[in-house]
Design goal:
heterodimer; A: 792 residues; mainly alpha; Recoverin, domain 1; two-stranded antiparallel ribbon; two-stranded antiparallel sheet; 37 helices; 4 strands; 1% strand; B: 139 residues; alpha+beta; Beta-Lactamase; five-stranded antiparallel β-sheet; 5 strands; 42% helix; Longin-like_dom_sf (chain B)
């Protein structure tokens, strides 16, 4: 406190006043009603009073000690005499008249009058008001100011919090303040949401009663508060409120030290727009409220939010739409904040950095503008409560947020503004995906892949193409869309591909469409592991048998059942369904083959594998649909089967060579390729004459049912020549027809099983591909790191 | 790790320049200014239509006895110049690239701000923060 030298007269006068104000006889005057009344009675503008209060140090202490009181009085005198308020002037001004206080008969009346005047004056302001901005802010400010001031200025007793912490901001300092206010009611009224209001101000009451000004009647603080702001801000963050509060009607109630300022009243009145009941709540209540509810100063109350939403609508009727940057710029420029601050506010509030404001962002920006106008410093980071995620959160529910927000700079966690707008959407999409997708494995890999764009795109393509093959059944079809959504690939592609593939597989005569699946398979080689993973789970069920099908024993068994047991002892005959069995066999054999190949990347090795597996196929192949023939040719078939084997292996190799492109061309390509080649081989074999019987069965399995019968017939006559028993041929033919049907059915089954096996293989291979890609990436990174050294 | 970071507008006036406080900051300003010539030379040489990341990054413009200067140009001919102290274990090329990328990103954010008029000096706090992060590393 500056030393104060008072003249005797002054001393005496001041002490009288002090005694008058010191109702509690504690030798220090809390900012109770009397002091406020006194100051008001000085008939000074509110800003001045505020300034005085601050100058004298009451703000700091929170109450008027004797010395502060004297200083204040002296300053009042100075102000009344028209001199600028300066600390130095305290002692330098000589012959200062005593401060004059107009003591109305009814202090209340005087206050009312003052209030009314203020209110009116303030009321006038908003009208011309620059737009809407000023208005809401007031309210917002009120809210905001509560907490900060409360926390920071516990000592602001004297300065009665003008703005009854309206909506939520409890005044931390309130505990002290409460006493003086009679208007405790106002806090009640103002408090819309269990927020606590700063201790009511006596002023508030009156204000409430008097003005009724709606908060729209805001006066732009600009000039007035500016100086006050400067002063206040020096104390602590909240302090800025008070001075601005004077001008801003909407002061959020926090401990605005300027409680003594009549100006506060209007603001408090405004605050009370929500509820204007001058309840005589006990100050204790206020205190309690204030102390308990340390709300987030940045919280937006429902009222504020509603206002913001309305404002948003004026610019953008669609609440889910965006406000372009230019429109927002115009709007916020009306608030008359400096461009630099507006720029900073924009930076804080444009969360997704897209140059436009969503409703949430707009509310956050508006809230920040309001805060700034009320003197709050802008935070460095966006406060949590203003994060765009908090849409439609009920502020009231968040009341007791601890003082994490002391000041504004203490914004808690700041979500790293994602430069990639896709991220939030992805994050949100995850739960949806998970719910819909039975295979959660998809979710994780996909987002990660977004960044390495090239690889990702490749994977996406692969996934797209690969997913087709994995499963003709619905699970795959369901998955591709999900994957595509996640990866942002055109879902249609996957769907189409999947459908076509599915169709291709579903028909036993799929080989007519071989080229398509084959090509897809090729491109699929790099299918994303994610897709594979997705795929992997579904296949399992049908699989089991097929894995062992190589042994053909299973197929044989099935064949037996399907073929109603021609009763032929020949095991080779079992292969009656033969048309079908051969197919799965080669694929199965090729499966291990391809796996083999992938690892070894050696065509010959694959061929070797194929050859090794082919022997198993031997017995089945020749049995193609023509049992009787086989019976006759049991002996001949076997030798013929050998050439088949060789040819198959050759075909397989040829396929491999032709495919060549990726070592990862997996089973799928091999399978159909093998089958295709086998068909050609078979046809070649057929031409070989003696080998006719064996090739025919092979051919059959590749061809459609329709072809089977003609083949059977062909085989029949051919074999009839060889067979010494033409008699048996006819019955065998008829039998073969029936068997063909069964064979076809069996073949269908086997095909499906094969599909699942292939799908599984595909997934495995894709997994391998993924691993390899990762290795490649790491190697590239290493190379990159080593490169600079090479330059040096 | 930078000693000085500068953003030069298309018309070759600085939008933002900041150096590690030292006794002779003007030296860095001068260095940046002279580096503009090299930038122009590279830009005209690089040629054009393609504007992939590789071409945006100009690489080491020229080394001096104490430091190295790296350049980066955006599609709108805004240039970023980073001056790095040679005494630092030479930064990997990738690190410089990542620094430029970060600069570019935050510059884009500044541009997106409707309250920013292109051509004005950059006063964004976020941008400052990013630059500080890069410079503080120098220690």
């Amino acid at each position: 406190m500056e030393s104060l030298t008072l003249s005797d007269v002054e001393q005496k006068y001041y002490s009288e006043l002090f005694v008058y104000c010191d109702t509690d006889n504690t030798k220090k005057v809390a900012s109770n009603g009397r002091v406020l009344d006194l100051f008001r009675a000085a008939q000074l503008p509110s800003e001045v009073v505020l300034q005085i209060t601050e100058l004298c140090g009451a703000t700091r202490l929170g109450h008027f000690g004797r010395s502060q009181f004297y200083i204040a009085l002296k300053l009042i005198a100075i102000a009344q005499s028209g001199l600028p308020l300066r600390v130095e002037s305290l002692n330098s001004v000589k012959d200062l008249p005593l401060p004059r206080f107009v003591v109305g008969k009814n202090e209340a009346e005087a206050r009312h009058a003052a209030l009314y005047q203020d209110a009116d004056s303030q009321g006038l302001y908003p009208a011309p008001g620059t737009a809407l901005i000023p208005r809401p802010p007031g309210r917002g400010l009120q809210n905001k100011k509560g907490p900060p001031s409360s926390t920071s200025l516990p000592a602001h007793e004297v300065i009665q919090p003008l703005a009854p912490s309206i909506e939520a901001q409890p005044e931390p300092t309130s505990p002290v303040i409460s006493p003086h206010q009679s208007p405790p009611t106002s806090p009640h009224s103002w408090r819309k949401h269990k927020r606590q209001h700063s201790g009511g101000n006596a002023d508030r009451q009156q204000v409430v009663a008097a003005t009724g000004a709606v908060w729209t009647q805001f006066r732009e603080p600009q000039t007035g508060p500016v100086t006050g702001d400067g002063m206040w801000s020096s104390h602590s963050p909240p302090p800025p409120l008070p001075p601005s509060q004077e001008s801003w009607v909407s002061f959020t109630a926090d401990t605005p030290p300027s409680s003594t300022l009549p100006a506060m009243h209007p603001s408090s009145v405004q605050e009370s727009t929500t509820i204007r009941t001058v309840a005589s709540a006990a100050t204790t209540n206020e205190i309690q409220r204030q102390s308990s509810g340390y709300d987030d100063p940045w919280k937006i109350t429902d009222e504020q939010r509603q206002y913001y939403i309305n404002q948003f609508k004026t610019i953008q009727p669609d609440l889910t739409g965006l406000i372009p940057g230019s429109a927002a710029k115009e709007f916020f420029t009306k608030s008359k904040l400096p461009i630099l601050e507006l720029s900073h506010i924009w930076e804080l509030s444009d969360f997704d950095k897209d140059g436009a404001l969503t409703l949430d962002e707009f509310c956050a920006a508006f809230h920040l503008v309001v805060a700034r106008k009320n003197g709050y410093d802008l935070p460095e980071k966006l406060p949590e409560s203003l994060m765009p995620k908090l849409i439609d959160l009920d502020d009231s529910a968040e009341v007791p947020e601890p003082a994490a927000e002391v000041g504004f700079s203490a914004s808690p966690v700041e979500v790293t503004p994602n430069k990639s707008p896709s991220m939030p959407s992805l994050n949100q999409a995850w739960p949806e995906m998970n719910q819909s997708n039975e295979d959660t494995a998809i979710v994780h890999p996909v987002p990660i892949r977004m960044t390495p764009s090239k690889i990702h795109m490749q994977e996406m393509e692969l996934k797209r193409t690969g997913s087709d093959h994995n499963h003709p059944t619905s699970p795959l079809l369901a998955k591709p869309p999900e994957l595509s959504e996640e990866t942002k690939l055109p879902p249609s592609m996957k769907f189409v591909a999947a459908n076509t593939v599915g169709d291709g597989y579903s028909s036993s005569d799929s080989f007519t469409s071989d080229p398509e699946p084959i090509t897809r398979q090729r491109s699929q080689s790099g299918a994303s592991p994610e897709a594979l993973k997705v795929v992997a789970p579904p296949p399992p069920p049908p699989r089991p048998q097929q894995s062992h099908s190589r042994s053909s024993s299973l197929d044989m068994n099935r064949t037996f059942a399907a073929t109603a047991a021609p009763g032929q002892p020949q095991p080779s005959a079992i292969a009656f369904p033969p048309a079908v069995p051969p197919r799965p066999l080669p694929t199965q054999s090729s499966v291990p083959l391809t796996g083999h190949r992938v690892e070894a990347e050696g065509v010959p090795a694959g061929g070797a594998v194929l050859t090794t597996t082919s022997p198993q196929q031997i017995p089945q192949q020749p049995n193609f649909a023509d049992f009787s023939q086989f019976q006759a040719f049991a002996a001949s078939e076997q030798p013929s089967s050998l050439p088949d084997i060789d040819k198959h292996s050759e075909a397989g190799q040829a396929d491999k060579i032709s495919e060549g492109a990726g070592p990862l061309r997996t089973v799928k390509s091999d399978g159909p390729a093998d089958e295709r080649t086998s068909a050609t081989v078979n046809s070649a074999k057929g031409s070989s004459g003696p080998l006719a019987p064996p090739p025919k069965p092979v051919r059959r399995r590749l061809k459609s049912e329709d072809e089977l019968r003609p083949e059977d017939e062909q085989i029949g006559p051919q074999k009839a020549a060889a067979i010494a028993a033409p008699l048996t041929s006819q019955p065998s033919i008829s039998r073969s027809v029936g068997k063909d049907k069964k064979a076809i059915q069996a073949s269908i089954r086997r095909n499906k099983e094969t599909n699942t096996v292939l799908a599984r293989l595909n997934s495995e291979l894709q997994q391998q591909l993924k691993d390899l890609l990762e290795e490649r990436i790491s190697l590239e990174v290493q190379l990159e790191q080593l490169r600079p050294f090479s330059h040096l | 790790m930078a000693v000085c970071i500068a953003v030069i507008a298309k018309e070759n006036y600085p939008l933002y320049i900041r150096s590690v406080p030292c006794q002779n900051e003007l030296k860095f300003h001068y260095t940046v200014h002279t580096s503009l010539d090299v930038v122009e030379e590279k830009v005209s040489a690089v040629g054009k239509s393609l504007a992939d990341q590789r071409e945006l990054y100009l690489g080491l413009l020229y080394p001096t006895e104490d430091y190295k200067v790296y350049g980066y140009v955006t599609n709108s001919k805004v240039k970023f110049v980073i001056v790095v102290d040679s005494s630092n274990t030479s930064l990997r090329d990738n690190e410089i690239r990542s620094m430029f990328r970060k600069l570019h990103n935050s510059f884009t954010d500044v541009m997106c701000n409707p309250f920013y008029n292109p051509g004005d000096p950059i006063q964004s706090k976020a941008f400052n923060g990013i630059v500080s992060g890069m410079m503080v590393q120098t220690g």
